Structure formats: C-alpha cells, structure tokens
Amino acid sequence: MNFFEFQKSLVEGKRGSAKPQAAGEEALTVSQLTQRIERTLKAGFPGSVWVKAEVSNFKHHGSSGHAYFTLKDPEACIDCVMFKSEFAKLKFEPGDGMELLVSGRVGVYGQRGRYQLYVTNMLPVGQGALELAFQQLRAKLEGEGLFEAGRKKVLPRYPRRIVMVTSRETAALQDMLKVLRRYAFLRLGIFHVPVQGDGAAEQIAAAIGRVNKMSGVDLILLGRGGGSLEDLWEFNEECVARAIVASRIAVVTGIGHEVDVSIADLVADHHAHTPTEAASIAVGQWRNAAQVLMDGEGKLGKGLRDLVGYYRQRIGSIERHEVFRRPMDGVNRLRQLVDDREKDLGHGMSDRLHVLQRRVAEASRRLEKQRPAALIERLRQRLEHRKHVLAMTLRSRVKLLGSELLTAERRLRNGSRVQRQALGKQLDSLEAQLRLVGPEQVLQRGYSITYQKKTGDVIRSVKQLKAGEKMVTRVADGEIESITEDSKQPGLFE
Fold it and tell me: What is the rounded distance in angstroms from the CA atom of residue 121 to the CA atom of residue 248?
C-alpha cells in the first residue's frame, strides 16, 4: 500500500480501539501532526530504500551545493533532495530524462507539509556511473575543442631535461627509466604523486603546475601502469585535463595498457599507449642522432666543397675580365669623363651666374622704388593731408554743435517760462478752491467743530460722550469750553 493507505489503516485501527473524543479535546498542532507523520513513516519504512525512476526538474544550487529534483514514473512522482556532502561524491552529472537507481530515506519536510526522499546515492540504470561520467566529461571537453590537434603543442625533437610525474612505487616508473637511462646525457627528474585514490587527481594537477614553474624543463611524462577503470579514474578527472591543457611544456601520457584511453590521454600533446612507449617517444629522435649528425656532416662537407668551387670559378672569370687585363683603359675613360663633366659644370655655372645677375639687378630696381626714406615721405604727406581734413571737419562740427546748443538752450528757457506760468495759474486756482472748501471758510459761515478736550477726537455722535467730560467747541473767532451733563437727571433750572 502507499503512504496514504498505510496512514488510513493506522487511523482506522486506532478509531476501532479508542473511545470517541469530543471535538477539540487533545487537538494537535501542525508541528505535532507533522512529527507523528514522520514517526509513522520511519516506523513503516526501512532506514534506506532503493527507487528506480526517471529524473525531472533537476536543479543544482551553486550557493548551497544541494541538488533538488523529482523522481517520476507514468503514475506518480516524489520530490527529492541530495545534500552537498553526498552530491560531491558523484562521478557523473545527473540530468533531466536520465533513468536512475536512487537510494535514500523517506522523510517529511515540515515547512512545506510534504514528504520527500532524502537521497544518499544514485546510479545510472543500464550504464556504470564511471562510464557515464567519462562520456559526459569527454563530450564537454570535446565541445570546448580541447581534443583538436591544432591546439596541441609540438614535442621537442631533442629534449635534454625530462620530468616524470608518477609514483615511485609503480612499475611504470621503472619501465620509463629502462628506456631513458640508455641516454646518459639526459637530465631526468621524478615528481612523486599518488596515482590512485581520493585526492590523487588534485595532486597530479598541482604537480604539473609546479613543473611548469621550473626553468629548463623540455618535456613532461605522465605515466601509470594498467588497472581497472576505477584504478585509472584519477586520470579522468577534469582538474587533470585542465592542468595538461594549461601547461606551457609539452606533455606525453602513457597511462595503463594499450586498450586504456583516459581523458588525460585525449588532451595530452601526445598519447602513448604504455609508459614504455611514452619514454620511447620522448627519446625517439635521440636514437638516430648519431646518424643524423653523420648525414649532416656529409651534407655540410659537400655543401662547403660546392661553395668553394663556385667561388673559385667566379674569381677565375673575374680575373679573365677585360678590366683586369687592361686596367688603364678604364682609368683613361674615367679621366675623359671627368673632363667632360668639368666643362659641363663650368658652362652651367656661367649660365646660372648670368641668371642670378639679372635677378639681382631687377631686385635693385625694385628696392630703389621701395626705399625706406621714400616710403616715409609718402606716409608723412598722407598723414598731413588727413590731419588737415580732420581739423576742418572738427571746426565745422564744433560750429554746428554750438548753434544747435544755443537753439536748444533758447527752447528750454522759453518752455520753462511757459511751464512755470501754467503751473502758477493752476496753483492759484487750486488754492482758491481749497479756501472755499477749507474749515476756516466753513466756520465763517456759522458752523462750529466740537471735539473732546482730553483726546482731541472730533465728536460726531452723542454716544461718544459721558457725563462730566469736557468739550471744546471751535468757532470762527475762538474756542468755547463746556461740560456734558447726564441726560437722565433733570437740569438745574427745570
């Protein structure tokens, strides 16, 4: 049965044996319910189960290193998580659509309220994990062009200093030394590294990098004896391949037997099938070095003899040349040529001198016309003329401006006098009007003005006064003081 059927059977079994409870009694929180579900799952499932299914929605988080994916078949699916520590141990890269055999435990993810499979290991179905990882890395590096022959470095023809990157305990080292020790003049170095086991790939890559920092190294031999795919796997790691590609020194690999081909072999500058073959390739040109020297010596001797014969023949033809048989003929021809050149030079200099004399005479005539004294006299006369014209212009301009100024002055005086007369008349008219409407004229007509003596305010209403306040009444010829009485009390004479 599935999880939900299993849970239902447990719940129904408990219901049959337990007494019914009232609603709300011993209610569970969501966390408590989730914990019970997880305990039920752990009780109903073994600690680890194997599941065969297809992968979908695969995501590898670079920040955390965890992998999240879904396993599915035609009828159901389950969410899965593989933590960084287990995922780092995989030799291949999982992907969508891949059929895998997965092991792990079933648990509950309380934050989302769902069950999932916590994966600890996975294997590809129908294909070994190492073989799949090999094919994946091979396709990746091939897509980058790292296997192309045009990228690989040319091996040195006559290497003098060779470094072997291998383990001292392997038979591969002895096989390479058997070949290399035949040439006593070679300078050999051994960089000891483990060639099998976890961490060996990183040490091999680091060794290749350190050898590249040495000076004078001509060639690197990377070797190991035969073994299974698991034994040779460290040479299929990406870090080793990247180190070989980055090496400025040519690398020859001899890993395993003739049938073994690793990623390191594919990216190396030359791939030998065995360590012995790798050493033989390294010294291949040295085997025939003596014969090459002898052949070179013969070719050099023949070339020198041919060159000496050629130059002897040329010297003989030069000796037989007419110049060397009658050397004075050439000297005499050169003397005659010098005389001809001398005559031509004399005629040319004479003609050139006449031309220059004519130019000098013409320049003298022009210079006479342009003498400084003559130029100064012409400029002085022009200046005097302009000075006279300017003086006359200024005198006429001054007269004109004086006449205009007198006219303007007369106009200004006349205008001012007329303006003053008009303003005087207007002022007299305003003064007469003001007198007619002024308070003095009003008082003369029998009117008076009453104001409070204390404040000086003009009284316009009886409401402004109180009993006993003093008032001043102004008439045309003086002022009259008075005191207000209370209107509610009878007068003194009533």
Answer: 39
